[in-house]
Design goal:
With 70 residues, the protein is mainly beta. Helices cover 0% and strands 49% of the residues. Strands 6-1-2-3-4-5-7 form a seven-stranded antiparallel sheet, with no helix packed on it. A hairpin with a 4-residue loop joins strand 4 and strand 5. The chain is globular, with a radius of gyration of 11 Å.
Length: 70
């Protein structure tokens, strides 16, 4: 699914899923660098993010895979 990863002015990382019109903050992430690991959203979804070069700027739309969550 297409997911836009972005940070707000406070530096809070969030994910926006246009198809679901859903924006949720990221509450935990597997890797410090974000890319190539999983992130857990506030609603319980776990998303697997693709490998990207370190320092990739946000916001960016990526193809993510939902691993769990309703």
């Amino acid at each position: 699914m297409k997911v836009m990863m972005r940070k707000d002015q406070k530096g809070t990382l969030s994910a926006y899923v246009p198809k679901k019109d859903l924006e949720e903050p990221v509450v935990s992430q597997e890797k410090e660098g974000l890319w190539g690991g999983t992130v857990t959203l506030a609603n319980g979804w776990v998303l697997s993010l693709p490998e990207m070069p370190e320092g990739t700027s946000l916001p960016i739309t990526v193809e993510a895979k939902r691993l769990s969550g309703d």
